[in-house]
Write a structure and sequence with these properties.
heterodimer; A: about 110 residues; mainly beta; 6-stranded mixed β-sheet; B: about 110 residues; 7-stranded mixed β-sheet; 4-stranded antiparallel β-sheet
Amino acid sequence: EDQVTQSPEALRLQEGESSSLNCSYTVSGLRGLFWYRQDPGKGPEFLFTLYSAGEEKEKERLKATLTKKESFLHITAPKPEDSATYLCAVTSEETSGSRLTFGEGTQLTVNP
Amino acid sequence: DVKVTQSSRYLVKRTGEKVFLECVQDMDHENMFWYRQDPGLGLRLIYFSYDVKMKEKGDIPEGYSVSREKKERFSLILESASTNQTSMYLCASSLMGTGNQPQHFGDGTRLSIL
């Protein structure tokens, strides 16, 4: 059974204070690791897909990296508008098709 | 841009009612999904569909059914609503693939069962 664990559960940063969110996963044959951002009262918004260890993707202040056991979402010089819950999810050879297994998320608050 | 539209943002129903939640996507995606999201429990898959008239159970299908008569539309049905089905319901769609296609989500329906 695929498992995804995100840490920390909650993170408070000052504006400009860089940090990283962690997503640890246990799967049988990773097909894809996905990062989403979710604002209160809205659906998750797709950010990145990573497929293999060593891969990196960037978008504005966000950079996602992948190893064989975990992924990091690095946030550089965050702004208050980066405040949201960040979700990590995986698909694997064990699950059928495009079924995602989600972590419970990291709630990020960036104070001005 | 992918657009997944859920018919209602907020819905209030009574115990025992039959409830329909509608979802439409405009990107010709083969796959569609229904989740519920509850504090402390995360996102849980209720049902999904790979094609018209096809459906598969997710992790928590009890008390729910689905219908997919057209490729772009996926409906979630609460046969006899109960208070423990009060939740945020999220619909998603994705391209057919080998598990490497991202899912795109609607903005959710916050359903309250009284």
